[in-house]
Amino acid sequence: MTFVYLDQAPWINLRERDEDDETRQLIEQQAQSGDITIQLLQTLFAETGKHRNKSVREHHIEYLFDVSRGHVLRNFQDVKHIEKRNYAQRFLGYEFNLAEEVRGKGAADMYGNPKLEIDGEDVLKSDSFDKETKREFRELLQSRKGFSLLADESFSEMVKEHHQRREEELVEIIEDTRGQMDDRFEDNSRRRRVETHSYFANYVLPDVISSVVNSGGWISFQKFDFEKYVQQGDEEVEQLFRCFPATYCYLTLSTRRDTEKSREAKPNDIYDIFSLAVAIPYSDIVVTEGLWVTQAKRAGLGEIFDTELLTSIDELADVLS
Question: Which of 10, 138, 215, 248 has its CA at a distance of 20 to 30 angstroms from the CA of residue 316?
Answer without folding.
Answer: 248
